Amino acid sequence: MPIKWRLAVLMADREIDYKELAEMTGMHPVTISKHKNIRVMPERLERETLEKYCKALNCQPGDLLTYVPDEPKGQTS
């Protein structure tokens, strides 16, 4: 899981639920809910969608996406 999706974290930090974010972005509430409940970057994330999230949440794209390198094989935590 090299790229984590942090939409739920940003929404929680700003105390915004999926219905509020849907109103702010003009996106369907079901889409927001799906994006909120995943932990990895969505397979198809369009630039327009990312821009809507950034504008509504007053954040940068890097706030929504975090790169987490895979552990080398053979190493355990």
Automatic annotation (TrEMBL):
Segments forming domain HTH cro/C1-type: 6-64
Pfam families (UniProt xref): HTH_26
Molecular function per GO: DNA binding
Domain of life the protein comes from: Bacteria
Name this polypeptide is given: Putative transcriptional regulator
Organism listed in the record: Nostoc sphaeroides CCNUC1
